[in-house]
Write a structure and sequence with these properties.
By secondary structure, this protein is of the alpha/beta class. The protein has a single domain, classed as 3-Layer(aba) Sandwich (Rossmann fold). It has 9 helices and 12 strands. The longest helix is centred in the middle third of the chain and has 16 residues. The termini are far apart. The protein binds adenosine-5'-triphosphate (ATP) and magnesium ion. The site of adenosine-5'-triphosphate has 13 residues, from β2 and α1.
Length: 257
Amino acid sequence: MSELVINNLHVAIEDKEILKGLNLTVRQGEIHAIMGPNGTGKSTLAYSLMGHPNYDVTDGEAFFKGENVLDLETDERSHLGLFLAFQYPVAIPGVTVANFLRTALNAHRKATNPEDKGMPIPEFRKLLKERMDLLKMDHSFAGRYLNEGFSGGEKKRAEILQMATLKPEIAILDETDSGLDIDALRIVSEGVNALRGPEFGAVVITHYQRILNYIQPDFVHIMLEGRIVESGGPELALQLEEQGYDWVREKYSLVVS
Ligand SMILES: Nc1ncnc2c1ncn2[C@@H]1O[C@H](COP(=O)(O)OP(=O)(O)OP(=O)(O)O)[C@@H](O)[C@H]1O
Ligand SMILES: [Mg+2]
C-alpha cells in the first residue's frame, strides 16, 4: 500500500507564511477529514500538494511512492495517483466534459504505458455514462463545456465525476460538500464511497460534520494557523460541531477573537 507522508511542510504565498510545519500521513485505504477555521491554510495544503505555482514550498517534503512529489510537475503528480477536487472549480470554455476527461484519462494511460493508443471511444463513452449514472448526472453534461454555467452543486459533482473516472490512489476533496443540496450530498458521498477500498485514500476538507455521516472518516484532524494541532477519530468532528474552535485556540495559546 502506498502512503503520502507530509513532513514539516512550510508554504508561503507572496512571502506570507501560511503553512508552518504541517505533518500528515495518509495511507491508501484511509479516509482523513481535515477541519479548521477559514483562512487556516486547508486549501493552501491542497494546492501545494498538487503544485499550484503561486504557492512557494519553503521547507519540508511530501513523499509518495518513493518520490518527493513537491519536486514533480503537476501532471506527474496526477500520473502518480494524486487528485484534487477544487473548492472553487474553474470553467474551461471550449473544452467539453467528455473531451477533458478523455484527454486526462488517456494521458494517464500513456504515462504508465508509452505504447498506449488511448481508450477506444465506445469504451470511453460507456465508462463515462456509468460514472455519470453513479453520480446521477444527466448525460447531456458530457457535451457541455467544463463548469461553464454549471451551478455550484453541479461543479462539485463534476469534480467527483473526474475523480471517479481517473480513480486516483489518494484524493484531496476541498470542501466538496459546500453548495450541495441534501440529496446531492448523499449522491456525491455515495460516489466517493464507491471508490473506497484498500486502493483508495482520501483527505476530505470540510467545515461541517454532516458529510462525515456519509463518508465516515478513519481520522479527523483539526488545522489551526498552518498546522495540524489535534488528531482523533470521528468524535472530534462531533465535538467541533458542538463546541466550535475556541477550546482549540485556547489549548494552543492562540488569541480568541
Ligand atoms: N495571493 C494571496 N496573497 C495574500 N494572502 C493570501 C493569498 N492567497 C491566499 N492568502 C491567504 O492565505 C490564507 C490561507 O488561505 P486558504 O485558502 O488556504 O484557507 P482555507 O483554510 O482553505 O480557508 P476556507 O475554509 O475559507 O476555505 C488566508 O489567510 C488567505 O487570505
Ligand atoms: Mg479553502
